């Protein structure tokens, strides 16, 4: 099967949105909308464990969604591009209009939600 540039673009978009689809990564991205934070700040804000935050930050850095600035012994994380914050804002705005449908959608439930249904 021949892969077209459109197919490649769609595959890349799907990978991008998987980065946003994980609740832990999304909570980190949301916290970083306010500006730079250390891992300790993010642990406190997100209530995730330090290893969990560090692993998700590594993933987000690898995907190019988060940047790292080292200052002495401290590492400061921030969104890599203003458009990441804009995308999160657009999601907020869209959800304001379609939240009920998204909430009631049975096709997008996580495996844990399906098991409890």
Question: How would you describe the overall organization of this protein?
Answer:
The chain is mostly helical and 117 residues long. The chain has a single domain, classed as Winged helix-like DNA-binding domain superfamily/Winged helix DNA-binding domain (Arc Repressor Mutant, subunit A, Orthogonal Bundle). 66% of the residues lie in helices and 10% in strands. It has helices at residues 5-21, 23-32, 39-46, 50-62, 82-104, 111-116; strands at 66-71, 74-79. The chain has a two-stranded antiparallel sheet with strand order 1-2. Strand 1 (66-71) and strand 2 (74-79) form a beta hairpin. It is globular, with a radius of gyration of 16 Å. The termini are far apart. The mean pLDDT is 89.
What keywords describe this structure?
117 residues; mainly alpha; Arc Repressor Mutant, subunit A; two-stranded antiparallel sheet; 2 strands
**Order of strands in the sheet with most strands:** 1-2
Helix content: 55-70%
Mean pLDDT: 89
Shape: globular
Strands, count: 2
Helix-strand blueprint:
Blueprint: H1 5-21, H2 23-32, H3 39-46, H4 50-62, E1 66-71, E2 74-79, H5 82-104, H6 111-116
Antiparallel strand pairs: 1-2
Quick structural overview:
By secondary structure, the chain is mainly alpha-helical.
């Amino acid at each position: 099967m021949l892969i077209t540039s459109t197919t490649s673009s769609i595959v890349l978009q799907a990978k991008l949105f998987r980065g946003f689809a994980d609740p832990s990564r999304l909570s980190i991205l949301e916290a970083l909308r306010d500006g730079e934070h250390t891992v300790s700040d993010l642990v406190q804000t997100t209530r995730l464990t330090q290893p969990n935050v560090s692993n998700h930050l590594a993933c987000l850095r690898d995907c190019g969604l988060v940047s790292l600035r080292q200052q002495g012994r401290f590492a400061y994380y921030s969104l890599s591009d203003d458009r990441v914050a804009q995308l999160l804002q657009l999601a907020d705005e869209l959800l304001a209009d379609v939240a009920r449908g998204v909430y009631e959608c049975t096709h997008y439930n996580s495996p844990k939600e399906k098991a409890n249904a």
